């Protein structure tokens, strides 16, 4: 059952004159609240046993996912206030007079500082791991600090300069941010750049480009094949695990796509409690957008976790994975085994009740997050399912409505997904979780948070007004809460039968088959 803590039910207007309208609203209410009196009916289809197929994805460790969520929770509190002043000005430029929701209340103090002052404290007190993981977010927040809080910006930059000078791991992460153009105005970080030059003189950094980028350079494609080994000439840290020093990188696979991404296994210096995370290096996409999407996904997860939305015992969330921009249109992606694309969901056989709960919760979070950010090109090989039932999206090259010529529906939910969890589970539990998550994000305090933070995450790539206007459309802010919820419900219910989604997936399969025949 999909439940939420401290969440209002559907608001039904009193004295409705239309019995048809009342019946529709009662139906809507039952979808959101779930059916508490009956046991879950979790039916999986009986299909052949699945094959373990290694594909792009994220780690299996539940404890690490929870650890990341804790970090995101603290950081979102810190960044909310740093974006507050800029949010007020941006709101003036956007016409919100016709919004059916109440105007957002004055921002509350979510951490130990006021406005931008908490950035300095966050940078000083955070661990190396936290800084490296959220450095793009911190840099963009520093950049977004209004000019009338110049002292706060300067103090945050000074704190960052000290951390860069003290830690070669943080220095490497900062170099990658500057190399990849992940900040809008590099001049803001000129003193930090000076600290990086000093790190090079001290021997912390001796390379002028991230060494692993060599695997995907066009001039190296002929020699980079399975079994190719690159030994580290200088000290290089793992892009996702800054405590790991890379000794060697070994090519496991060169994928047969146009950009020729490469799967690397990494040998670490010294002893390690577990093997380092495998890396996919890829060239040709703007990885700044992938990084920004992951940051926003962490924000969505923080909001949903605070609201207590769950299906059974599994919180609703959009699963995130590591991705780092390591240069201009080149980046590193986290890899996990035992995942299959949504196109092959039948190979997983019948699902246990635990897996169905996780598939419903993560599926709801993933589809809603992708819809709100306008992520397109959602064929059924850009949506993955992990062995434990966790669903997540990959490839965020097209966002905010930037659709390809023949694209799927904005909710690219397939009949295969609906059949896997069962039609009854889809129409009640999955739809209910989606509606709860949508309504939570539409709460005035959360709308205010999204208006302030999401444009900041994408500020190096997209205009702020474009992001705000798009979010207002996908959140349907010009409609009242009930009307927006009803429209959203219809979209999700009809999604598996979408002709556009079926056509997109069919054309993608034909294109892949043609490429396979040519190879």
Features:
PI3K/PI4K catalytic domain-containing protein; transferase; alpha+beta; 16 helices; 3 domains; single chain; globular; kinase; 519 residues
Structure, described:
This protein has 16 helices and 13 strands. The protein is α+β, with helices and mostly antiparallel strands and 519 residues long. It has 3 domains: 31-56 and 286-441 and 479-518, Phosphatidylinositol 3-kinase Catalytic Subunit, Chain A, Domain 5 (Orthogonal Bundle), CATH 1.10.1070; 62-201, no CATH class; 211-276, no CATH class. Strands 2, 3, 4, 5, 6, 9 and 10 form a 7-stranded antiparallel sheet that branches. Strands 1-7-8 form a 3-stranded antiparallel sheet. α7 crosses α8 (190-201) and α13 runs antiparallel to α14 (464-474). The model is unreliable at 1-17, 35-64 and 81-117 (pLDDT under 50).
Write the layout of secondary structure elements.
Layout lengths: L1 E2 L15 H15 L21 E2 L5 H21 L1 H10 L23 H9 L2 H17 L5 H17 L1 H12 L10 H12 L27 E3 L14 E9 L7 E7 L10 E5 L3 H21 L2 E2 L2 E2 L7 E5 L2 E7 L2 E3 L11 H20 L10 E4 L4 E3 L21 H7 L1 H19 L2 H14 L6 H11 L6 H14 L4 H20 L1
CATH fold field value of the largest domain: Phosphatidylinositol 3-kinase Catalytic Subunit, Chain A, Domain 5
How many domains? 3
Mean pLDDT: 80
- Share of residues in strands: 5-15%
Structural class: alpha+beta
Helix segment tally: 16
CATH architecture of the largest domain: Orthogonal Bundle
């Amino acid at each position: 059952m999909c439940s939420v803590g401290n969440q209002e039910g559907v608001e039904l207007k009193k004295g409705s004159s239309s019995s048809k309208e009342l019946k529709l609203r009662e139906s809507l209410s039952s979808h959101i609240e779930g059916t508490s009196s009956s046991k879950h009916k979790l039916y999986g289809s009986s299909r052949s046993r699945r094959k373990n197929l290694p594909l792009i994805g994220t780690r299996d460790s539940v404890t690490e996912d929870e650890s990341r969520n804790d970090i995101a929770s603290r950081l979102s509190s810190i960044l909310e206030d740093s974006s507050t002043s800029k949010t007020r000005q941006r709101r003036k430029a956007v016409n919100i007079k016709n919004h059916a929701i109440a105007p957002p209340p004055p921002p509350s103090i979510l951490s130990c500082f006021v406005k931008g002052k908490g950035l300095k404290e966050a940078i000083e007190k955070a661990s190396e791991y936290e800084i490296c993981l959220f450095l793009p977010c911190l840099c963009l927040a520093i950049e977004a600090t209004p000019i009338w809080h110049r002292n706060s910006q300067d103090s945050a930059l000074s704190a960052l300069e000290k951390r860069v000078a003290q830690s070669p791991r943080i220095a490497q992460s900062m170099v990658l941010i500057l190399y990849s153009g992940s900040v809008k105005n590099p001049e803001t970080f000129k003193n930090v750049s000076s600290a990086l030059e000093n790190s090079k003189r001290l021997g912390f950094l001796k390379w002028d480009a991230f060494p692993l980028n060599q695997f995907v350079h066009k001039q190296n494609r002929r020699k980079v094949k399975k079994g190719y080994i690159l030994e580290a000439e200088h000290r290089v840290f793992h892009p996702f695990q800054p405590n790991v020093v890379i000794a060697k990188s070994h090519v496991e696979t060169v994928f047969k796509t146009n950009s020729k991404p490469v799967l690397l296994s990494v040998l670490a210096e010294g002893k390690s409690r577990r093997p380092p995370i495998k890396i996919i290096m890829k060239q040709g996409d703007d990885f700044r957008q992938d990084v920004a999407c992951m940051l926003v996904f962490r924000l969505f997860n923080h909001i949903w976790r605070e609201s207590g939305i769950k299906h059974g015992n599994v919180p609703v969330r959009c699963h995130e994975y590591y991705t780092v921009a390591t240069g201009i249109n080149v980046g590193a992606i986290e890899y996990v085994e035992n995942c299959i694309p949504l196109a092959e969901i039948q190979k997983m056989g019948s699902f246990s009740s635990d897996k169905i709960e996780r598939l419903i919760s993560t599926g709801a979070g993933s589809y809603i997050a992708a819809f709100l950010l306008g992520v397109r090109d959602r064929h059924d090989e850009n949506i993955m399912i992990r062995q434990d039932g966790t669903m997540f999206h990959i490839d965020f090259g097209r966002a905010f409505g930037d659709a390809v010529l023949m694209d799927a529906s904005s909710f690219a939910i397939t009949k295969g997904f609906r059949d896997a969890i069962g039609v009854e589970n889809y129409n009640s539990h999955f739809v209910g979780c989606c509606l709860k998550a949508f309504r939570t994000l539409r709460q005035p305090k959360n709308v205010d948070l999204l208006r302030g933070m999401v444009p900041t995450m994408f500020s190096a790539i997209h205009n702020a007004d474009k992001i705000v206007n798009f979010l207002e459309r996908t959140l349907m802010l010009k409609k009242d809460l009930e009307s927006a919820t009803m429209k959203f419900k219809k979209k999700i219910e009809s999604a598996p039968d979408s002709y556009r989604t079926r056509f997109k997936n069919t054309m993608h399969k034909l294109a892949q088959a043609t490429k396979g025949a040519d190879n």
